[in-house]
Design goal:
This protein is of the alpha/beta class. The protein contains 7 helices and 9 strands; from the N terminus they run αβββαβαβαβαββααβ. 29% of the residues lie in helices and 21% in strands.
Length: 211
């Protein structure tokens, strides 16, 4: 079977890895790393990993940065690949580069051919939205994005054919934004506004969203 043929659920699970960006230091939250905030009885990093697992990602890579040792000590991240980003203060782009590099190193042969990229500070985006985007994977050239009332958001699915180009342009807090803008015509949009709320936990005022 080639990537262009219909894939079973298990095969998609093998080829699409979850990539959780969880390195931020929470500068506008008084220096509280977002990964260590609590939501529904779990740390945000645990909540996001659980959603990726429920969405069908058998392999999950988690990029850590701010207080990485505390996250490792406190969070239940069994069977995840933990990726340290020593340059986390440079912004989300550095974490995306680190995560994609980790998949390049371990995703050879029958490994991951796409990454389902999620942000730790968006707990309103759960497994159902993630599963919809993941299900749109076709092959390593796939570019897929969740949409909210037609506006592109997270999560995004990045086929392996794009990883080098994304890594070359991911700087500051832009992540894959510049690359996706250049390749907008290739992006498949998957509407998720009926099952997810794409708010960010960025400031003290946003903490009202945590339960």
């Amino acid at each position: 079977m080639t990537d262009n043929e219909a894939l079973t659920e298990d095969q998609v699970g093998d080829r699409v890895a979850g990539l959780l960006l969880a390195a931020g230091g929470g500068r506008r939250l008084g220096g509280r790393p977002k990964a260590l905030l609590e939501h529904r009885g779990h740390l945000l990093v645990e909540h996001a990993v659980g959603a990726l697992r429920a969405a069908g990602c058998a392999r999950v890579h988690v990029v850590l940065g701010a207080r990485a040792e505390d996250v490792r000590a406190r969070a239940a991240l069994d069977d995840c690949v933990l990726v340290d980003n020593p340059d986390w203060e440079q912004g989300m782009g550095s974490s995306l580069r680190a995560g994609l590099h980790s998949l390049t190193r371990t995703g050879t042969g029958t490994g991951a051919r796409a990454a389902l990229v999620c942000l730790v500070d968006q707990p309103g985006i759960g497994a159902e939205a993630m599963a919809r985007v993941r299900a749109a994977y076709r092959d390593e050239t796939s570019l897929v994005s969740a949409a909210y009332a037609g506006v592109r958001g997270h999560p995004v699915l990045l086929g392996a054919a794009h990883w080098a180009g994304i890594a070359a342009t991911a700087t500051g807090d832009r992540g894959a934004r510049a690359y996706l803008r250049e390749h907008e015509a290739e992006i498949a949009l998957v509407e998720c506004g009926d099952v997810a709320r794409p708010y960010d936990i960025d400031t003290e005022a946003d903490l009202v969203h945590l339960e």
